Automatic annotation (TrEMBL):
Residues 151-457 form the FAD/NAD(P)-binding domain. It comes from Limimaricola cinnabarinus. This is Dihydropyrimidine dehydrogenase. It comes from the Bacteria. Pfam families: Fer4_20, Pyr_redox_2.
Length: 479
């Protein structure tokens, strides 16, 4: 009887890939986790309990077939494991690096709930896809047949690229327009290299180019090309711009008070070797400064960990709730603390102290958690008389993002928006008020997680294929 290679969670403890020492990783922007070795990946995969109802899969936005590729990895069938992983996820190697597994798949693992420690799903996902690249299993997309229809995608971020992948596999001709000079959106300019080294994105870009996807970069819709021109050139259009308008604080227009997206973009550009005057001047550089980051999500963690690497003299993060109620990944918080960041819980900005050279400090409200709101989450309340001044030479606002006013920016009539300013789109398909125009969910909901953008991009692409099929059928019937 063949040996059962699974259900080893009782005898095999949970183990993560080796993590570089904090003192070493503070000095560069390289990824902090090493790669699993083949035997270690198989060992950790063998801990999976192969649940009849896999909570890891149901709590994954992409509903990845996690138990299946864990079993294949445990059995040494890595190419099959990669193929199963790729079937539902355009970027498994990227999700394996940056997806908040502690809140999604790993956080809902059955053996984690039973006290045995979760399966290290993300690390195995990263390993099998990196192995696929090394072994040459990742090939350009070759559809069974080419279709004559073309789709224009506005936005080369994770949602737009996931849609491009799906559409090319269906044989549709794809052109992707983006305002930036590199492909990847958030993955290229928002996420630091210590979480996602940029060659990982670049090799996917090369795969898309080899698959026939055309990229039109440095192209601002409404300025360099009109939305109507894109619409007239293609049989359908997908809006996949993401959300880049930063939420703001009152009276925060001071020197040294900057937006997270500007700060992270400058850092990433500098690491690419670009000329970044705002970085060189010190405007978007934390070197030698007391840094305060305001916010509690993953973007805030990206900012504080970037500031440490740039040589800040101190880095503090203000968040108005406590550790248990912060929205960011607990794993990222732990990494930040190891690297020397101080998390200041139950603290919210009241205003700024400035002199002729810019900001010198943040006036801070001490907070406490009060009664729950309609969602059950306890609301922060100010503690009267407990304010204080936090010294700062650089303040980074990491408060989340809002949608841009696309109909106005692009001069589009008839593109309806919701009361929140997001593009109004049909749930599940992304169909908008304009015929043949769709929008991926990350702009509909404003979700910031890459994994949600991938899911929504694939869903919208599937709806576009159905739309093209119906249009083709209607054309045949008319003839």
């Amino acid at each position: 009887m063949a040996e059962n290679k699974m259900l080893k969670f009782v005898s095999v403890p949970r183990d993560m890939p080796e993590k570089r020492l904090a003192t070493a990783r503070r000095e560069d922007f390289q990824e902090i986790y090493a790669e699993f070795a083949r035997d270690k990946a198989a060992e950790q995969s063998s801990r999976c309990s192969q649940c009849g109802v896999p909570y890891c899969q149901t709590h994954c936005p992409l509903h990845n077939n996690i138990p299946d590729w864990l079993r294949l990895t445990a059995e040494g069938r890595l190419q099959e494991a990669y193929e199963v992983s790729q079937a539902t996820n355009t970027f498994p190697e990227i999700c394996g690096r940056i997806c908040p597994q502690d809140r999604l798949c790993e956080g809902n693992c059955v053996i984690e709930q039973s006290g045995h420690g979760t399966v290290t799903i993300g690390s195995v996902e990263k390993y099998i896809t990196d192995t696929a690249w090394e072994e040459g299993w990742v090939k350009p997309i070759l559809p069974a047949r080419e279709r004559p229809e073309s789709v224009g995608i506005i936005g080369a971020g994770p949602g737009g690229l996931a849609a491009a992948d799906y559409l090319r596999r269906a044989g549709v001709q794809v052109t992707v327009y983006d305002r930036y000079d590199r492909v990847g959106g958030l993955m290229t300019y928002g996420i630091p290299g210590f979480k996602l080294e940029k060659e990982v994105v670049d090799r996917r870009t090369r795969q898309f180019e080899d698959s026939g996807v055309e990229f039109v970069l440095n192209c601002k819709v409404g300025e360099d090309i009109s939305f109507d021109a894109i619409r007239g050139k293609h049989d359908a259009v997908l809006i996949a711009t993401g959300v880049y308008k930063s939420r703001d604080l009152p009276d925060s227009d001071h020197g040294g008070v900057i937006r997270a997206i500007d700060y992270l973009t400058a850092s990433n550009r500098k690491n690419f070797g670009d000329d970044v005057p705002e970085y060189d001047s010190g405007e978007l550089n934390a070197a030698g400064k007391k840094v305060v980051v305001i916010g509690g999500g993953d973007t805030a963690m990206d900012c504080v960990r970037t500031a440490i690497r740039q040589g800040a003299t101190s880095v503090k993060c203000l968040y108005r709730r406590d550790r248990a109620n912060m929205p960011g990944s607990q794993r990222e918080v732990a990494n930040a603390e190891e690297e020397g960041v101080e998390l200041v819980w139950l603290s919210a900005p009241k205003g700024f102290e400035c002199d002729a050279n810019g900001v010198t400090g943040v006036h801070v409200h001490r907070m406490r958690l009060g009664t729950p709101d309609a969602t059950g989450r306890r609301m922060p309340e100010k503690i009267e008389g407990a304010d204080y001044l936090e010294e700062a030479d650089l303040v980074v606002k990491a408060l989340g993002f809002e949608p841009e006013d696309l109909p106005t920016l692009w001069g589009v009539e008839g593109l309806e928006v919701t009361r929140w300013g997001t593009v109004r789109a049909e749930f599940g398909t992304g169909a908008t008020s304009l015929d043949g125009v769709f929008a991926v969910g990350d702009i509909v909901r404003g979700a910031s997680l890459v994994v949600w953008a991938i899911r929504d991009g694939r869903d919208s692409a599937s709806a576009i294929v159905n739309y093209l099929d119906q249009s083709a059928s209607a054309g045949v019937a008319a003839e």
